[in-house]
Design goal:
Structural class of chain B: alpha+beta
Radius of gyration of chain A: 12 Å
Number of domains of chain B: 1
Oligomer: heterodimer
Distance between the termini of chain A: 43 Å
Order of helices and strands of chain A: EHEHEEE
Number of strands of chain B: 9
Helix content of chain A: 10-25%
CATH topology of chain A: Ubiquitin-like (UB roll)
Number of domains of chain A: 1
Distance between the termini of chain B: 39 Å
CATH class of chain B: Alpha Beta
Radius of gyration of chain B: 18 Å
CATH superfamily of chain B: Molybdopterin biosynthesis MoaE subunit
Shape of chain A: globular
Number of helices of chain B: 4
Strand order of the largest sheet of chain A: 2-1-5-3-4
Order of helices and strands of chain B: EHEEEHEEEHEEH
C-alpha cells in the first residue's frame, strides 16, 4: 500500500529545483519528515531543501511528524517575504 | 465584515476603505505597502511577488480575524498583490476602523507584522544591473517542528 501526495514548490525552491509540482508515492503511514527524506535522498538539486523545512498540508502549516493521506497537497514553504 | 484578498490586480484602496467604517467608528486607517527603489544600497527597478494563492487567502483571513479581537470590530479589509510590480505600486493594503484610534493603529500594525511572519508570499527584487534575487525571508513560527515532541520553553515571565 502506498499514498500518493501532490508536492508543491514555490519561489526559491521552485527556481532551484526547476519544478513547481511533483506527484510522489510514499509507503502508507509516511509522515512529512519521510517525504522530506525521500526528496533529499534524491541528491542534487533536491538536497538543497532544508532538513526541517516549513511545510503546509492542504494549505495549513503543519508539523513534520504529521502523517500523510492519499491526495494530500504538501507545500514546501521557503522563508516568507510578504508585505 | 472582514475582507481578505490575494490578487494580481492593482489594489483599489478606495474599495478597501469602502469595506470598513460604521457610524460608531471615529477612526479609520489605511496602510499601504509600496515597492521602493532601493534595498540595502542596491538600486531596485521592480519586484516580482510569488504567492501560494489558496493558502495565502486563508492565512490573510486568519490574521484579520485575530486582529479583530483586540480591535473590537470586524471592520478590517486587507489585500495583497502578486505578480510583477513597478516602483511605487502598492503591494499590500490594510484598512481598519474602530470607535477610537488606539485600537485601529494597533490592529493595522498587527496585520502587517503578521503578514511578514507567516503569509506564504515571496518577493524577487530586480536590480538596475539586470540581476534578480529572492529577498531573504522569515521562517514562519512553528515551522520545521515535530508536534508531538515540541515543548514550548518557559520564559522567566512564564514561571512568575
Amino acid at each position: 500500500m502506498s499514498v500518493a501526495v501532490r508536492t508543491l514548490f514555490f519561489a526559491i525552491y521552485r527556481d532551484r529545483l526547476g519544478v513547481s509540482e511533483l506527484l510522489i508515492d510514499l509507503p502508507s503511514g509516511s509522515t512529512v519528515a519521510d517525504l522530506v527524506n525521500e526528496l533529499r535522498g534524491r541528491g542534487a538539486p533536491f538536497d538543497m531543501l532544508p532538513e526541517k523545512p516549513a511545510v503546509a498540508i492542504n494549505q495549513t502549516y503543519s508539523f513534520l511528524d504529521e502523517p500523510l493521506k492519499a491526495g494530500d497537497e504538501v507545500a514546501f514553504i521557503p522563508p516568507v517575504a510578504g508585505g | 465584515m472582514i475582507f481578505a484578498e490575494v490578487s494580481s490586480d492593482p489594489i483599489d484602496t478606495a474599495a478597501l476603505l469602502a469595506n470598513i467604517g460604521s457610524d460608531e467608528d471615529g477612526a479609520a486607517l489605511l496602510f499601504i505597502g509600496v515597492v521602493r527603489d532601493h534595498a540595502e544600497g542596491r538600486k531596485v527597478t521592480g519586484m516580482r511577488y510569488d504567492v501560494y494563492a489558496e493558502m495565502a487567502t486563508e492565512v490573510l483571513r486568519e490574521i484579520a480575524l485575530e486582529a479583530s479581537i483586540p480591535l473590537g470590530t470586524d471592520r478590517i479589509a486587507v489585500a495583497h498583490r502578486f505578480g510583477e510590480l513597478k516602483i511605487g505600486e502598492i503591494s499590500v493594503g490594510i484598512a481598519v476602523s474602530s470607535p477610537h484610534r488606539a485600537e485601529a493603529y494597533e490592529a493595522s500594525r498587527f496585520v502587517i507584522e503578521e503578514i511578514k511572519k507567516r503569509l506564504p508570499v515571496w518577493k524577487k527584487e530586480h536590480y538596475v544591473d539586470g540581476v534578480s534575487e529572492w529577498v531573504e525571508g522569515t521562517i514562519p513560527p512553528g515551522a520545521g517542528l515535530e508536534g508531538s515532541t515540541h515543548v514550548v520553553p518557559l520564559t522567566d515571565e512564564g514561571l512568575a
